[in-house]
Amino acid sequence: MIEVEPVRFEEMVAEALDGLPEELGRIMSNVAVTVEHGPGRRGLLGLYQGIPLTRRTTTYAGVLPDRITIFHHAICAICDTEEQVVEQVRRTVVHEIGHHFGIGDARLRELGW
């Protein structure tokens, strides 16, 4: 386990988001990415909550943003170096964004995410 300061961890999440292909960023809609610095949910590195883009219909309006939560403590608990944290943050951000695009866990695993 490695300890990473909250501000540095948030920078890692921002860097992971900035590293996404530009076209994905343009397609993402009504989604907020947050960091949970506390213990978080057991066994989860990240969590997507919302209505995936593939399930939105013409009646989709007036809803709160989808939420992607990245769990600081859980990620640091499985890493030994800051480099591992950076990579795991990137993988977790991509995985949860995959859910925003309607990709399920099984397919994300097949794709290596």
Automatic annotation (TrEMBL):
Pfam families on file: Zincin_1
CDD domains membership: MMP_ACEL2062
InterPro entries reported in the protein's UniProt record: Zincin_1 (IPR010428), Zincin_1_sf (IPR038555)
Stated name of the protein: Metallopeptidase family protein
Species name: Nocardioides panacisoli
